[in-house]
Amino acid sequence: MTIGSRKLPVSTTMLAGLGGLTLALTAVYGACANEGDDDPDVISGCTLESCMSSCLAGGLPGGHCEGDLCLCDPPLPDADGDADGDGDAEDLPDETPDRTDVREDVVVDVEVADGETTDGEPPDGETTDGDVVEVVEDFVGPEDVGPRCTELAAAWTFNSGASGWTHEAVLAPPSGSFDPWELGTPTTGPEACHGSAATNLCWATGLDAAYPSCQRGALRSPTRNLAPCASSSYTVDLVFWHWYDFAAAAGSLDGALVELSGDDGATWTAIAPAGGWDGAIDMDSGCDGTLYTDGRDGFLRTSGRWVQETIRVPLELRTEESAFRFVFGSDSATQAAGWFVDDVALVVR
Ligand SMILES: [Ca+2]
Ligand SMILES: [Ca+2]
Fold it and tell me: How far is the CA of 113 from the centre of ligand 1 (A)?
C-alpha cells in the first residue's frame, strides 16, 4: 500500500510537544541551566543527590557531578525514535496517547494514490481514485499505561534515613549476630560519607570499628517496578559510590559483591560492575555455617578512596519486582575497616 502524502493538522498538543522537546534539549547541558543558557551549571558542592534531583525534576533521566558541574543525561528517544515519549514515530500523530499527551481523535487528510486505499477497502460510497479522502482514525484510549521507564530513575543519599532499605544476615546460623550493616556517619574507614552534604549518612559494615568476624550481611534495596524498562531500547544502570577495606591474606580474603533480583528477592544473581570484580573471595573455614560470598567473585582488598561503580541491570531482571543488594562476608581471621556505601542511584537511558 502506498499513500501518496499525508497532511497532518498541527494541533495544540503537537505544538506543546515541540515546546517540551526544545526545553528538554536545552536542559541536556545542565538541568539547572537558566533558560537559553547552554553552559553547564555550577552547583557549588555538587552532589549526586542535588544533581539527580535537579535532572529528574527537569524530566531528564539522570545526571552526575563533574567537580562542581551538574551534568544531566540527555533525554531518551523512545524505541522508535519518538521525541515526545508516547511510543509513536516522531512525525506521525499520536496513536497511543499517554498521560501527558491526551488528545481527541485526530482528523488526518490522506491523499490516496490511484487505485489504492488507506486500509485496503474504499470507504463506503466513495472512490479513492485521485480523491482526497477524509479519514477519521479510530484511536484507542487514552488509558493509564502506568509509569514509563524514564520515570523510574531513582537516587538514594540516605541522608534522611534508610529510605526503605533493609538488611539481614544471609544463610546464617540461627544464633549469633552476622549482620553488621548500620546507617550513620563513620568515624572509621573513610571517616565520612560520600559527598559534602551537611548531614550526611551512609551505610557501613561498622561505623566506629572494624567489622566483626564471620559476617554475612546483605543490605537490600526496596523492591522496584522496572517492568516498563524491559526493552532493549533502554539501559538501566545501578550506580553507587563505595569505599572498602577488606582484610586480605593468603587463604583469608574477605570480600563483598552486589546481586540483583527480578523476583522480589526469591533468587539473586551477581552482576559484575563495569570495571569487573577484583577477584574471587576466599575465606577460611573457621566460621559456623555457610559464608554466602565465599568462593564468589567480588570486591577485594581496598579501594583506597570513594569510588563509583556502575552495574548494568540485565533485561531479564527488569521486572515488576526488581531489587538489588550489597552482600558482605568476613571469615574468622583478620578483620579490617569494611564496606561503606552511599549515593546509590538507578540511572535510566
Ligand atoms: Ca549520604
Ligand atoms: Ca577476615
Answer: 63
Which H or E run includes 23?
Answer: helix 12-27
By three-state DSSP, how is residue 64 classified? strand
Consecutive H or E run containing 158: none
Average pLDDT, the chain: 75
pTM assigned to the model: 0.64
Ligand number with the minimum distance to the CA of 162: 1
- More confident of the two residues 336 and 147: 336
Most confident of 40-54, 66-80, 189-203: 189-203
| 49 φ/ψ angles, rounded to the nearest 5 degrees | -60, -55
Q: Which of 128, 320, 312, 299 is nearest to 235 (CA)?
A: 312
pLDDT tops 70 at residue 289: yes
List CB-based neighbours of ion ligand 1 within 5 Å: 157-159, 193, 200, 202, 342
Query: Residue 15 is placed in which grid cell?
Result: 505544538
Where does the pLDDT of residue 292 fall: very low under 50, low under 70, confident under 90, or very high at 90 and above? very high
- Ligand lying closest to the C-alpha of residue 159: 1
DSSP secondary structure, 200-231, as one string = --EEES-SSSPPPSS--EEEEPPPB--GGG-S
Q: Domains along the chain?
A: 15-72 (no CATH), 149-348 (2.60.120.260)
